[in-house]
Amino acid sequence: MRLAAIASVVIGLDQATKWLVARELVLGESVAVVPGLFHLTLVHNTGMAFGLLSSVDLPYKSLLVTLLSMAALGAVLYYALSSGPGERVTRFGLGLILGGALGNIIDRVRLGYVVDFLDAFYRDAHWPAFNLADSAICVGVGLLILESLRQRSPAISPEADVPAEAQRGGS
Predict the structure, then answer these.
(1) What pLDDT band is residue 63 in, cutting at 50, 70 and 90?
(2) Is residue 22 within a helix (H) or strand (E), and if so which, with residue range?
(3) What is the pTM of this model?
(4) Which of 99, 108, 124, 151 is most buried (most C-beta within 10 Å)?
(5) 116 annotated active-site
(6) Catalytic residue among 116, 119, 124, 161, which?
């Protein structure tokens, strides 16, 4: 699948899910999907990923966060354009990251905040609300890390675990 197609699918799904949740829930409303573990909770995130800087009151915070997001998007786009067509896992991961970043930037430009609604927790442990774009970014980064580790690990030959003396036939 091409980079632009992957990013477009992520953007479309992200914007559609945000629209549906914003249409059905009021700000702060929470609906249990799996009680005690997962809810849909409508949140307006004025900060960065997972609510970072949400509680900070800075002049022009929305503009600053949008510019930082666009700079990160530019770096990912540069990386995507410099990766080869044969790097399928890398390009798929980059497509997920690009789509997720653009989905959240669309919210920031259009609304001044990002719509978050996926709310996961267990007992006292509570993960900040997130959305499909955030999920795509995390999966994309995970794929890049896995691919990087796969490419860096040396090929293991059958002789690798055999002592050098045994390979030469010595005793």
Answers:
(1) confident
(2) helix 3-24
(3) 0.78
(4) 99
(5) yes
(6) 116
